[in-house]
Amino acid sequence: MTETEWQIVVLSLRVSGVAILLALPLAFALAWLLARGRFPGKVLLDALVHLPLVLPPVVTGWMLLLAFGANGPAGRFLAETLGLTFMFRWTGAALAAAVMALPLMVRAMRLSIEAVDRRLEGAARTLGAGPWRTFFTVTLPLTMPGVLAGLVLGFARSIGEFGATITFVSNIPGETQTLPLAIYAALQVPGSEGAVTRLAVISVLLSLAALVASEMLARRSGRGGGHVL
Amino acid sequence: MSFEIDVTIERGAARIVANYKVPKGLIALFGPSGAGKTSILDAVAGLLRPTRGRIAVGDTVLFDSERKIDLPPERRACGYVFQDGRLFPHKSVRDNLLYGWKLAAEDQRWMALEEAVDFLGIAPLLDRMPRTLSGGEAQRVAIGRALLRGPKFLLMDEPLSSLDMARREEIMAVILRIRDELKLPILYVSHDRAEVERLADTVIPIGG
What we know:
The complex is a heterodimer of chains A (229) and B (208).
Chain A: H1 3-36, H2 42-54, H3 57-68, H4 73-81, H5 90-115, H6 118-126, H7 131-159, H8 163-169, H9 179-187, H10 193-221
Helix pairs in contact in A: 1-5, 1-7, 2-5, 3-8, 5-7, 5-8, 6-7, 7-10, 9-10
Chain B: E1 3-11, E2 14-22, E3 26-30, H1 37-45, E4 52-57, E5 60-64, E6 69-70, E7 78-81, H2 93-103, H3 113-120, H4 135-148, E8 153-157, H5 165-180, E9 186-190, H6 193-199, E10 202-205
Helix pairs in contact in B: 2-4, 3-4, 4-5
């Protein structure tokens, strides 16, 4: 593996890691709202959350460009308040990956929240636990397998993210060129079959590692839980 | 210590009206399934809010729609034994038993883990997970969990219904000991006449 390839892997991991950590609290909150909430417009929110899953990724990338570009409302706001910019930067790649991963994370977490027997929460309340303690000692542990599944699905989706990223922040080596973008770039160059193969193998290994890790985590946290996804 | 229940509960289209003032001991709410017995227990526990009325146990008012009193379930000092046990599936038997005990104030507790374990004969179960327990074992743990919470009264919802005959005898003996030795007021729901006649000091027919 060359140094450039190593950099690509590190960048991919950083982009995906930041993306799912960024998306995690939001995904859980959305999953909670969709699972437990009763409010007008729930169907609309559900559709909005799932939009990146069904839209062509290029369209999602274009919309990100409109919203978070240098002249986009969200982009200008974040640049002025936090000094955070996305254009042609790895932060933009992370944002695109987060948006693309969000629907999958919400789905997995929502299922696990819906699977929690709410009568157990009632039991905890009669045993002296307030609403927050009930959440942290009963609800959250029981949804953990779903949260972990959501993280792994989100990570896998982020690592593979291509269309929205290349549309939103282009394909810049060392900044926005994650694994899939690097493979795409290498494919454009004649005689680079070796590089393509190595990058592809790395992709496969990363995805496998994520799956194995999730399996192990789920086993440990699911001990006695009996809740799968 | 007496139960004073005067409430109207609406669940969907069903409307349950209850009005009793009963003395201490084991009070059985007796009637066919679907008559709203469990709803009444849930209302006393604070898991279901009546549309109007008043619930008091001893001199503690738990709910009073006129005076806008509605204690949250965690402050009602009630031990609720559910029909299906409702043990926490992700916690060991020991952690299930100690869940309410740890949350109770020092002066609220009146039983130690060892006492409850001896009383119910569940010492060999402590390190097991709930899903490995039989129905009778789970029900004993559920009773222990409710007792260790340091309750001032118990609510029991058909605690025998999921058990076979032999286990029934065993749990019934435990309930009689709670009534006679621990002298804990119990509101007990059942649809089984024989069971009610054997256990109850007072029987209140519901519906039917």
